[in-house]
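Hey forum,

I'm writing up a methods section and want to include a predicted complex as supplementary material. The small molecule is zinc ion. I've pasted the protein sequence and the SMILES. Can someone with a working setup run it? I'll credit the forum in the acknowledgements.
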Amino acid sequence: MNIKLHQISERVSKFDFQLVRKDLLKLDDRFAFDSMACTAELIEKRGAILLYGTYSVEMETNCNTCLKPVSVKLDQEFDLNLINEESYAEPEGDVEISLGSADVDFYRGQEIVLSEYFEDQLLLDLPFSIKCSQECKGICPNCGVNRNTESCRCPENYGNNPFSALGDLEH
Ligand SMILES: [Zn+2]
Ligand SMILES: [Zn+2]
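Reply by user p_vandermeer:
Happy to help. C-alpha cells for the complex are below, copy them as they are.
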C-alpha cells in the first residue's frame, strides 16, 4: 500500500490494508500465510512522518528442531519516524533527528511504501527459535529418528544445535 505525502497532515490519517504473502519477498519461504492485516496511522511531526503500525498474522511454519508443522501468531505494534532520504543526506537539511524513542527509517520521493516497513518489522518480530513445545527433543541429527516419538542409541547431546535438523534438510 502506497500513501502519497499530500495524504498525510498534522492530524492522524489511518489506513487499514492487507499485505499478501507473495508480495513479501524478504521473508523466508518457511513461513506460509495468505495475508496479514495491517493498520497504519500516519502523522506529520517536525519534518518527519510518524508511523504507528499494528499488524496481525498467523503463519504456518515448522518446528525448528523436529519439523512438525506449527502455527505462529503475531499481534504486534511498532513506531517509526520516517525521514525523507534526500533531506537527510543534506547537512543543511532542517530535519530534526531528536524525535523521541521511535526508530528512524527512510522514504524516497513523494510516497510512503507502507509494505516495506511492515515486512521489515515482521522480520524483526519473528521468534528466534520456533518449537512445537518447550520439551521438543527434535530429530536426531545422527540417525534421523524423531526423538519425541522414538528413542535411539545415539549420544544424547549429539548435534545440539537447534538449526542442525534444518541444515540437514537443505543439503
Ligand atoms: Zn518439535
Ligand atoms: Zn539417533
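Some notes you might quote in the supplement: The pocket of zinc ion (ligand 2) is lined by residues 140, 142-143, 145, 152, 154 (CB under 6 Å). The CA atoms of residues 12 and 43 lie 5 Å apart.
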